[in-house]
Amino acid sequence: MLNKTVKELSQGLTNGEYSSVELCQHYLKRIKTHDPKINSFITVAEEQALKSAEIADKTIAEGNATPWTGVPFAHKDIFCTEGLLTTCGSKMLETFIPPYDATVVSNFKKVGAVCLGKTNMDEFAMGSSNETSYFGKVINPWSTSEQLVPGGSSGGSAAAVAADLVPIATATDTGGSIRQPASLCGLTGLKPTYGRVSRYGMIAFASSLDQGGPMARTAEDAAMMLNIMASHDAKDSTSINRATPDYTTDLNNSISGMTIGLPKEFFNEHLSNALQDTIQTAIKQLESLGANFKEITLPHSDLSVPAYYVIAPAECSANLSRFDGVRYGHRCDDPKDLMDLYQRSRSEGFGGEVKRRILIGAYALSAGYYDAYYKKAQQVRRLIKNDFATAFNDVDMILSPTSPSEAFGFGSKGDDPVQMYLEDIFTISTNLAGLPGMSLPAGMINELPVGMQLIGNYFEESKMLNIAHQFQSITDWHTRSPQNN
Amino acid sequence: MSVGPEDIHKIAHLARLKIEDDKIVKISEDISNILSLVEQLQKIDTSNIEPMAHPMDATQTLRVDKVTQINNRDKLQSVAPNTKDGLFLVPKVIE
Fold first, then answer.
1. For the domain bounded by A6-257+398-479, which CATH number is listed?
2. In this structure, how many other beta carbons lie within 10 angstroms of the beta carbon of residue A345?
3. Contact assessment for residue A158 and residue A482, using Cβ atoms and an 8 Å cutoff
4. What's the complex ipTM?
5. Hey, which residues 412-441 in chain A have their CB within 8 Å of chain B?
6. Do A359 and B31 touch (CB under 8 A)?
7. Chain B: residue nearest A321 by CA?
8. How far apart are CA A136 and CA A42, in angstroms?
9. SS3 state of residue A217
10. Of A302, A360, A383, which is closest to B49 when you measure between CB atoms?
11. Which pTM does this prediction carry?
């Protein structure tokens, strides 16, 4: 009963091999046994889950089941869940019980999936190692002698799926927060086109970059998840009004004749030889399926990290100004005046990395600096987007590594935040351009998983999932799991 | 580009944050490092490039000006730290 996909569990439930209650009890037991070591959950919702599972079993018995009815899963703790603690990894929201559901949460409820709890994350999704969570760091289940990071910010979702504490989990990605942990934990994770998944009720970090998406073992499960997560939503003014396709339809298409571009700027000195070799092997496997490769150029990609560290902090400082100690969230004791209330509530509620980004953002947006920083970064952003547009004239898809290395040790990036920021060097440009990107397991280095990234043109998630599924039909990296499970 | 403790105090005030004195030097260094990373943007000429606010250059959608929401005040205010008679309470502002 280990490492089952949603597709398999869905069949098991339909065939009556087990009930949803039994299935949820199985995973809840695994959480109890293994999560004390991994710390991938902030909240386990046992009681609510078993109640939903009973309802699901009734629905199945009545013959009204969807493929998701009774399937257990977890939400990243950034999605508001009505009546269930939602912390965003922060002391600021340590006791926040939302009065409403995020649209992504409603979508999963509608099809009868059973939420087992909320996964740990970097505070307000700011981090690449899960070290910034107020609720303690998440340990990568692939760790052997040394404790390794799961990646971030969706590190709890990735660790929980990799350790088989849930079959899938929701995640979000602002600069790589789905794809980098997917890479470091040996999973398939996808950041959709900007506007494809509703941001309503998804706690905002950088609104023009944030996007929710699936964290799964296989491309097939990711496609099934995207079918539920993607929707047009009038409650999110940036949600794209466009029909949602069935993302499973194209999975079995042949990829013969497709042209995949390799950006020469991404195959650079940041890559270890072992990672170069892993990606080259994956390329040969895709060639054996009939794909053609060609070198392309994305000339402004070296400016993506600098542009991101203006735009993301600027939007973060604006978004996080809502935490004022007045309407919800942490409030300091005995404020002596209004300024003291604001300053102490915010200073006590936010951790170091969040404060750093608020300060950078406030600086970049302050009088006299706006043009030099924010406007400049938004101009560079267009250049980055134009690079991709030119590349997609010649290729169907772009392939690169997901992250510069396999999972690393806690604290190994030193205490200069810039070193951690470079972790997202291959993933950030797709967020700036609003393009879909995904990571899928490409191989192992030092017995640790590493991923490769696919970047598609706008709304071409189906094509990405098709390539990923075909790759997974001739490789078994996505079926590997950590030994101490 | 480097910022000193004075600048940090000024920005922190704008952002309604309080930075403890023993952390101010480290934070100034961190912020200066991030700003020198960001400085790379200045090496490229962006004159005549339209700033990009949305990947698909979408504009804000508008809806019909009609009441669509019911009054959820009590439910939404239930998460506030301090309220009375439907109002949010803060320290006295006017003497």
1. 3.90.1300.10
2. 23
3. no
4. 0.94
5. 416-418, 421, 433-435
6. yes
7. B15
8. 9
9. coil
10. A383
11. 0.97
